[in-house]
Amino acid sequence: MLSRENLSHGSNGIVVAPALRVGLLPVFVPEMYAGLPVWARTVFGSGVAAGALAAVVLAAAFSRSGPPQERRDAV
To answer: What secondary structure letter does DSSP report for 71?
Structure first.
């Protein structure tokens, strides 16, 4: 899926890199979430859920902080 995306355009690469890191944290450092409540361990203990949540939050943050895009009126 990532090979089909243009990661050099805009903030795509900036969103993907931290999301992959967050998604891999439960695999490499599983004890990192031991002190969290059960509901948080459920969300962040799964690499897929943690990475997806990070990607959504980062994409939303960058879409709001970036310059406004020109809109074309449909004719």
So the answer is: -
CA-to-CA distance for 55 and 22, rounded, in angstroms? 9
Beta strands in 12-65 (DSSP E): none
Look up residue 63 and give its two tokens.
């879409």
pLDDT at 73 over 70: no
Encoding tokens for residue 12?
């795509």
Q: What is the pLDDT of residue 71?
A: 43
Which two structure tokens, joined as six digits, stand for 68?
A: 């406004």
Poorest-confidence range of 33-37, 40-44, 62-66?
62-66
Q: What are the DSSP E strand ranges found in 1-75?
A: none
